Amino acid sequence: MSRYLSAIWKCRYFWLSLVQMDLRNRYRRSVVGMGWSLLNPIAMTTVICLVFPRFMPQIKSVNHYAPMVLVGLCFWNFISSAARLGTKCLIHSERYIRQYPAPMAIYPLRLALGGAFHFLIALAVVLVMRCCLIGFSDLHTFISLVPTVLMIFVLAWSVSLLVGFATAYFPDIEHLADVGLQILFYATPIVYSPSAIQGKLGLLIRLNPLTTFVELLHAPLIHGQFPDASLFATGLLITAGFAGVSMLTVSRFEKKIIFQL
């Protein structure tokens, strides 16, 4: 594994140039530019905060609810875009794969880095909103966001890699991912608190791996406290699990994938 990561690092100028090219192409001739990456979650948060409190009496304060929804949407956009765009990450990179003998993991990494760039910008907006609506107390807990963001990045990279390889062999994965993401959105505590749903449905939500990362974000940003050690441990196990499966996938199929593109 260390040898493979070293190979990825050696071609860092190549995949960094791909990330820069993606960002330039995405916002070329755009007046708002990178502001478009923030407009969607902010608009969604505004609509949700205007509508949901009328039907959910457990929402006591919009000042706490708004940053909770915004950080959830920003996290969801990062993970869902990694899964959705990841389905085509190898197919769209076929010309590079045939011409440049680099580790296959750099193409999902390209997507993960681009998504992480937008996620960090959105997270900065969440921090400002949190301080304005909730206050400036407990800012020291924000340090826990560093390992959390790193775990989320590795998770997004792993998801992109797995769906990229899967789609190369089974093209229908692209369409299944769209359906699965729609279901997963409502099974992830984004517009509601993880503790708001009880019973069997609540258990299913707790078993959702994404719930752990949402709670890791909520702890410092919404509740003003450090996440529990058990929550960090669970996040590490989930991240390590996805990363491990990704490495096994690469080791087994990397040399064969070119015949499926």
Summarize the structure.
The chain is mainly α.
Can you give the mean pLDDT?
A: 89
Supply the number of helical segments: 11
Strand content: under 5%
- How many structural domains in the coordinates? 1
Percentage of helical residues? over 70%
Overview of the structural elements:
Helix 3 packs across helix 4. It is globular and about 55 Å long. The two termini are 25 Å apart. It has helices spanning 2-10, 12-26, 36-55, 62-86, 94-99, 106-133, 145-169, 173-186, 199-207, 209-221, 229-253. With 261 residues, it is mainly α.
What's the SSE blueprint?
Blueprint: H1 2-10, H2 12-26, H3 36-55, H4 62-86, H5 94-99, H6 106-133, H7 145-169, H8 173-186, H9 199-207, H10 209-221, H11 229-253
Helix pairs in contact: 2-6, 3-4, 4-6, 4-7, 4-8, 4-10, 6-7, 7-10, 7-11, 10-11
Tag the structure with descriptive keywords.
single chain, 261 residues, mainly alpha, globular
